[in-house]
Amino acid sequence: MTHRPARRARCASASPLFTPHGTDRAARKAARRQLAEAAAKARAETAPHPSGGDEAEQEMPSALFPPRGRPGPASARGGKLKLPAHRMTTATVAGAYPFLAEGGLGAEGIYIGRDVHAEASFCFDPFALYGKIEGFTNPNVLLAGVIGQGKSALAKSFALRSVAFGYRVYVPCDPKGEWTPVAAVLGGTSIALGPGLPGKLNPLDAAPRPPSVAEADWAGEIRKRRLLLLGSLARTVLGRDLRPMEHTGLDVALDAVVTHATTAGCTPLLGDIAAMLNSPDDLDAAGGLMSGRLGDASRDLAHAMRRLVHGDLAGMFDAPSTVAFDPRSPMLTIDLSRLGGSGDDTALVLAMTCASAWMESALSDPHGGRRWIVYDEAWRLMRHPALLQRMQSQWKLSRGLGIANLMVIHRLSDLLTAGDAGSRGRALAEGLLADCSTRIIYRQETDQLHAAATLLGLTSVESEAIAHLNRGRGLWKVAGRSFIVQHQLHPQELSLFDTDARMH
Ligand SMILES: Nc1ncnc2c1ncn2[C@@H]1O[C@H](COP(=O)(O)OP(=O)(O)OP(=O)(O)O)[C@@H](O)[C@H]1O
Ligand SMILES: [Mg+2]
């Protein structure tokens, strides 16, 4: 072992730094002075000795290398090492250095903002990407982030900027009423629903028949959709699946009401269905011999339907629609901000179910062009399997119809609130996640990182990144490729999308 007296002498003792709690000002000052003197002494000793000095000391590398790099042969800077230049595709570099050298998604689509690591513009269009990048199997987008991070602002930018490409935007559920100004600016329509408001939607409205479908087939399709709607409403209110007799009860009630409405030349209403379910004798008579005791078995159903007719949603969905669906409108939003809460979100879910059923007529037209359906605040809907089921069936059809769904939630664990592991609700929610080729993650709380990493298969670098994102900045996972993107807002968008106004 080499003995280095000079080196040992240079180590300044840290003892003057230690000033026990309670020492007075003079003692602290003296300690500081001692430290300064010791440091100065140590500096003087380290300075190169003019006469050559200790040899071992001369060999010590300096703490900072000169601009030419580390001196000595190990630096390989002697000019003797020659390597051929190595060229590779951007895709390969992107694999070797994720984030730093991502090839980008191309310039097609709407401008979102800046790719933070590549310092490049970031554009995105789910329809343009479909079939172009591997693993991009559907146009649906999941957007998650804590409160106030700019999720809605991003969704609104999608809407506003996509309209320039001829896409239409539908917002079936706007619980805060924040989409109404956006629709107004774009020349779209907003329907406000709530107690005492004039807007009414009849979810049993029949969609206009597409010319390619035969009349009889279309009647069957309408009947199927109405039954699905009634089933969803009943399941949401009852909080359970329907029994076989209850299915029959709905079936019989619907047929009787539709027959009566057709002869009278009017549209069937939810109120008529509720009245029919409420009169057991009529139901038994309409059900014929096969009905058994249909009237008794449908008693729960009658109470469930009553909520839509006489409960907190009275008047909104049990009257003829006051607005006709305009398929040419660039944007349609349903403002549910004045619905009034009953503690839980059941009223919101029922309203959303009715509104989306009413919208379905336009959405199921394959010639309706490219459309966005935005489920803002979707975390409020996650606990209701009946609605999730409707959403999922819509998502499955999205590719064929040219529809991109955008679902906004707070945290990934919102998906887990749909039910226990293995339950139907959980399977539906996980199915929705699996059907989103694009996942945009805004900042997540630290206790949520594990759930996010597990559900999305994030790397440790990505999990670390999402814990420290600023407002408007998100991790974009597009079919397995990752980007950190800063969403940039035009000043006019900023004032239009401002949801912080009341905080200032
Ligand atoms: N990229 C951005 N640059 C600057 N400001 C932004 C950006 N994105 C959003 N904001 C502003 O941040 C505020 C909150 O945004 P926003 O309402 O979209 O948040 P949010 O995530 O939807 O919140 P919540 O979860 O409460 O719905 C808005 O006033 C908006 O103008
Ligand atoms: Mg929001």
Automatic annotation (TrEMBL):
Keyword Nucleotide-binding: yes
Gene Ontology molecular-function annotations: ATP binding
Keyword ATP-binding tagged: yes
UniProt keyword annotations, A-Z: ATP-binding, Nucleotide-binding
Region entry Disordered, spans: 1-79
Compositionally skewed regions (Basic residues) per UniProt: 1-10
Gene3D superfamilies: P-loop containing nucleotide triphosphate hydrolases
Name by which UniProt lists this protein: ATP-binding protein
